[in-house]
Amino acid sequence: MFTGIIEELGTVAGIEDQGDAVRLTFSAETVLEDVTLGASIAVNGCCLTVATVATGSGVSTSATTGAGQWTADVMLETLKRTSLHAIEVGDRINLERAVTPATRLGGHIVQGHVDGVGKVVSREPSEHWEVVTISLDPELVRYVVEKGSIAVDGISLTVVSVSEDAFTVSLIPETLARTSLGFRAVGDEVNLETDIIAKHVEKLLGGVRS
Description:
Blueprint: E1 8-17, E2 21-28, E3 40-43, E4 46-49, E5 52-55, E6 58-60, E7 68-75, H1 76-81, E8 92-97, E9 116-125, E10 130-135, E11 149-152, E12 155-162, E13 166-171, H2 173-178, E14 189-193, H3 196-204
Antiparallel strand pairs: 1-2, 1-8, 2-7, 3-4, 3-8, 5-6, 5-7, 9-10, 9-14, 10-13, 11-12, 11-14, 12-13
């Protein structure tokens, strides 16, 4: 589980096509401070499992510290359902380690299970913030409400407004500087994860849809 508070911007260092899967290599620093094999790291909001870790001393089989690279194997199903199918070597990506029992829940409950892919529709900069509109699958609209939470590329954000096929968020300078939303262009794909609590409430109510 994650909170949607991005820890660092990493870099895609390698893409290895394995036919029915892809092995991705990422360069990072902060998220490798205490990583172990099998640990979970969210990449643009997708929960991935650490397969290997390499530091200056070589490939690690346990815990590691500091800057280096790590790899994750991404199944075809994940590639189909997320924006990871479009990443390229050199791309900057949002990274967050899984929470611990002592972690502050600074954002909201994020599972790292992407519900759909949206696109940046528009960006409206102002003096102190920027309003970004993102397209939304109509099937997901019922889970998105004004002032509610949504994860965009793994970033916990508050919904400003929502329509039948899009929603808007206001981004403060800190978010623009520390996450990929600072440089996402109109037309770029982003991973979306709606609030898990809304899904459970819907099921408890017998799957009622508005």
